[in-house]
Prior knowledge:
Elements: E1 3-7, H1 13-26, E2 30-32, E3 38-39, E4 43-51, E5 55-63, H2 66-72, E6 78-81, E7 84-92, H3 98-111, E8 116-119, E9 123-125, H4 127-136
Amino acid sequence: MGLAILSKKAEEFNETLNNVVLTIINARLNLCIQDNAVNDDGRIEIEIAKKYINDEYLSMDIITKREQIEQNHPDLLEILFKNQNYFMIAGTADADCEHLIYDFSLSYLRLQPDHIICIYDEAFITAEGIKKIESKKGFYSGWMKKFMG
């Protein structure tokens, strides 16, 4: 998993979808939902994009049917962070768009400060941590390294 949105509770997919769409609007990102976005395997796929120096985009899956995904990938939906179990409520296959992830994470964690953004199971981005970066100088190349370890 590239980027994962983690919550202490397994949310209903409409709540997650609403939060992600509000995040995209607040961060002034682009959203694309194709006519085949609703998949039979328990997820809705959306595209998030923005043009910086280069185009950056993420293809995000919002989990709609936890039980169906748990059958196929039982280890995918729960992640332990600081001795607390978190549920993955949305995620991407990759996380190679550093600026887009920063803007998305900042906006999302303002809306849902109790959630965590996890990158490749290595970086755990909290609302408090990203606010510190934003208050100092905002986005810079390599910002995710502050959250690794």
